[in-house]
């Protein structure tokens, strides 16, 4: 059997904290395999772009807000059925702007404990566990 080469998506992901110690999550639009699931804002790293620049750009494009991109929380590799992702996750701080649903269906500010009430893609389990085991870097 021929081994097909699966696409590998390199993603910059933002864990955006506000001053109340809450994290911004959004719900992906319906349709497709991950449609309707909640996620941390982010998207594909462009050629030649740093992870930090990607994270700030995606958040501006998807939500229309300004953030400061801080330390890396983790980088996770995950194999989905038909593609592979690397999620490069950074702690971020909300600076300005009211989040808008430019490319998503819903937005919520939640505490780390409340993340359990939302359905995320499979790869997110380890991120959520890490966030629940550490205090907010700003709180
Ligand atoms: N932004 C974000 N993406 C996530 C998370 N968890 C997770 O598995 N992903 C996956 C879903 C997507 O395949 C990819 C994010 O890239 P994206 O939002 O630009 O991509 P997409 O797949 O909707 O776009 P496309 O390939 O159809 O153009 O990473 C997460 O918490 N946040
Ligand atoms: Mg995206």
Automatic annotation (TrEMBL):
Keywords: DNA damage, DNA repair, DNA replication, Hydrolase, Magnesium, Metal-binding, Mutator protein
Domain Nudix hydrolase: 6-135
Cofactor(s) listed in the protein's UniProt record: Mg(2+)
Alphabetical GO biological process terms: DNA repair; DNA replication
Example of a GO MF term: 8-oxo-dGDP phosphatase activity
Binding sites annotated in the UniProt record for Mg(2+): 42, 62
Binding positions for 8-oxo-dGTP per the UniProt entry: 28, 39-42, 124
KW Metal-binding (keyword) present: yes
Pfam families in the cross-refs: NUDIX_4 (PF14815)
InterPro entries referenced in this protein's UniProt entry, alphabetically: Mutator_MutT, MutT-like, MutY_C, Nudix_hydrolase, NUDIX_hydrolase-like_dom_sf, NUDIX_hydrolase_CS, NUDIX_hydrolase_dom
The protein's Enzyme Commission number: 3.6.1.55
Superkingdom of the organism of origin: Bacteria
Catalyzed chemical reaction(s): 8-oxo-dGTP + H2O = 8-oxo-dGMP + diphosphate + H(+)
Family: Belongs to the Nudix hydrolase family.
Name of the protein this chain belongs to: 8-oxo-dGTP diphosphatase
Species annotation: Romeriopsis navalis LEGE 11480
């Amino acid at each position: 059997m021929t081994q097909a080469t699966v696409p590998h998506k390199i993603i910059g992901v933002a864990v955006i904290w506000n001053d109340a110690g809450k994290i911004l999550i959004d719900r992906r639009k319906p349709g497709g395999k991950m449609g309707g699931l909640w996620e941390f804002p982010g998207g594909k790293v462009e050629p030649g772009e740093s992870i930090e620049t990607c994270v700030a750009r995606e958040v501006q494009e998807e939500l229309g807000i300004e953030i400061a991109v801080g330390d890396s929380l983790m980088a996770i590799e995950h194999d989905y059925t038909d593609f592979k992702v690397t999620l490069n996750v950074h702690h971020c701080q909300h600076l300005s702007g009211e989040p808008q649903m430019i490319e998503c269906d819903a937005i919520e500010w939640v505490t780390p404990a409340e993340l359990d009430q939302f359905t995320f893609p499979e790869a997110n389990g380890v991120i959520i566990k890490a966030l629940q085991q550490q205090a907010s870097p700003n709180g």
